[in-house]
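Work through this:
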Amino acid sequence: MSHKTTLTLISLAVSMAAGGASAKEPIDPIRPVQEINLAQVELGKKLYFDPRLSKSGFISCNSCHNLSMGGTDNIKTSIGHNWQQGPINAPTVLNSSLNLAQFWDGRAKDLKEQAGGPIANPGEMASNHVLAIEVLESIPEYRVEFKQVFGTEKITIDEVTQAIAEFEKTLVTPNSPFDQWLLGDEDALTAKEKEGYALFKNSGCVACHNGEAVGGNSFQKMGAVEAYQTDNPAEGLSAVTGKDADRFKFKVPTLRNVELTYPYFHDGEAETLEEAVELMGRLQLGKKFTEEENAKVVAFLKSLTGDQPAFQMPILPPSTAKTPRPQPFGEDS
């Protein structure tokens, strides 16, 4: 046997040992971020927290996707420009790089495409791409950093969304108790959590909630067995495809960090995990969980909370006399 073959077999054995538990499970461990451009990440971090990309100068990406609160805002539907009520629950930004598409209806193919949407949405940040670029170009420190990172004299929305997306790729949450169990630590989960996972699998939840993100990789109809009653007007995937068969199909949300991302569903109607589990069992599976079973499933779901992103808050460069002033109030705001 050659030295190269021996090394290959050793590498395979190590890989199998590390991932042996996950290889036979429908859920995979979260991996640390791979292949990232650190310069873009640092610039994107500033842009993510910079409220000057909004017309009011008050709303940033972090306003609705708060990294101190599970990557969401923990309210039923988000608050937009001029205190407008948003039409839909803000999905978590954590592990969003693992989604097959972005937004509940999948209208953005990736994080870069998604990043440009809220800036120009009149119900969210209420600015526009031209104004956002004008703001950034009026700030010398930003002009210098964009040139250093992208090698361009002129800032465009393409670089802005690329940087924000690159930062968002770093927002993965590995090392949850469940991941530790998948990787071989039998003591990482309690007996109740293990029983909850068995119920989660055997009841059929893993048909939609599987893979690394425990969801986010398919669109499914809300109310597969029993119709879901809601006043929310969102139509789901059909709004993108125009197909009636896609009506009320929504991107399956990730269950990673789900104990932090309340309230639940696209309309934010389920206030607690217990309520969400009860409704999902009945509407999607035709199953009525007992109170004890519900508690076990919830215990398992809480074991999916991983290491939260932690970093030094960015110090944003100051505006100048040439920076367009925010418009938080008034008839035209």
